[in-house]
Specification:
Helix content: 40-55%
Protein name: NAD(P)-dependent dehydrogenase (Short-subunit alcohol dehydrogenase family)
Order of helices and strands: HEHEHEHEHEHEHHHE
Family: Belongs to the short-chain dehydrogenases/reductases (SDR) family.
Keywords: Oxidoreductase
Distance between the termini: 39 Å
Organism: Pseudonocardia endophytica
Number of helices: 9
InterPro entries: NAD(P)-bd_dom_sf, Sc_DH/Rdtase_CS, SDR_fam
CATH architecture: 3-Layer(aba) Sandwich
CATH topology: Rossmann fold
Strand content: 5-15%
Number of domains: 1
Radius of gyration: 17 Å
Largest sheet: 7 strands, parallel
Length: 255
């Protein structure tokens, strides 16, 4: 029987991580590599990917813009060639048309949001399914959001909420269909935390007050708060867990 510490090890695992150039993604790359994984990191900004791979041994860059789902086959092919296969997929890339009311979202904003947040994760997972079915194992961690389960009108983001809700729903269905192949699918659900995507609004005094007044743990989330949850879902620590959502929000959705 492995030790409790060994359960969280990713030694020898090969991970494909999207949205790796900033915010949670960069931290995820550091945590996954720190646990022993080799990580193919995907993002639009090649220079930032290259910098990340210099700073974090074990990472290899796979530049791509997931706003175009047609690139997903190539992403998987390049990542597989770099690492020799993929054991874990972390669908973390996200796009949000921040501050745009539901009635004002443009067709372009709607399309980009759905493509990055939902269609490309579906396509990436489908691309990996065949190899995983053949060998009888595979892990997906889909990063969603508390807006998939609660309306938050102070941050207009209707299509973003729909995309994250769709990702949670398809995760449960994948789990139901694919568990017999040894494939586990779970969601990591962040609450409010400081990142590149939230920086424009989270530091406003009224916004900070509203968030903290509705959060049981009285502070904003930090990227490091997700380290343990990510390792749990990606590693053998969660071998009997599939079709679930792990919410890391300081208790925001608990009331």
């Amino acid at each position: 029987m492995p030790s409790p510490t060994d359960l969280f090890s990713l030694d020898g695992r090969r991970v494909l991580l999207t949205g790796a150039t900033a915010g949670l993604g960069r931290r995820f790359a550091e945590v996954l590599a720190g646990a022993g994984a080799r990580v193919a990191v995907v993002g639009r900004r090649k220079e930032m990917l290259d910098e990340l791979c210099v700073d974090v041994p074990g990472c290899v860059p796979v530049p791509a813009d997931l706003a175009d789902p047609a690139v997903t086959a190539d992403v998987v092919a390049r990542a597989t060639a770099e690492l020799g296969g993929i054991d874990v997929l972390v669908n973390n890339a996200a796009y949000i048309a921040g501050g745009v009311r539901a009635e004002d979202e443009t067709p372009e904003q709607i399309s980009t949001t759905l493509n990055v947040n939902l269609v490309s994760p579906i396509r990436l997972t489908q691309e990996l399914f065949g190899a995983w079915r053949e060998r009888g194992s595979g892990v997906v961690v889909n990063v969603t959001s508390i807006v998939a389960r609660a309306g938050i009108a102070r941050f207009p983001q209707a299509t973003y909420a729909a995309s994250k809700g769709g990702l949670e729903s398809i995760s449960r269905e994948w789990a139901a269909q694919w568990s017999r192949h040894g494939i586990r699918i779970n969601c990591l659900v962040p609450g409010f935390f400081e990142s590149e995507m939230t920086s424009e609004v989270i530091h406003h005094e009224k916004v900070q007050s509203w968030i903290l007044n509705n959060t049981l743990i009285q502070r904003h989330g930090q990227v490091g708060d997700f380290d343990g949850a990510l390792l749990y879902l990606a590693s053998d620590a969660s071998t009997y867990v599939t079709g679930q959502t792990l919410v890391v929000d300081g208790g925001w959705t608990a009331h």
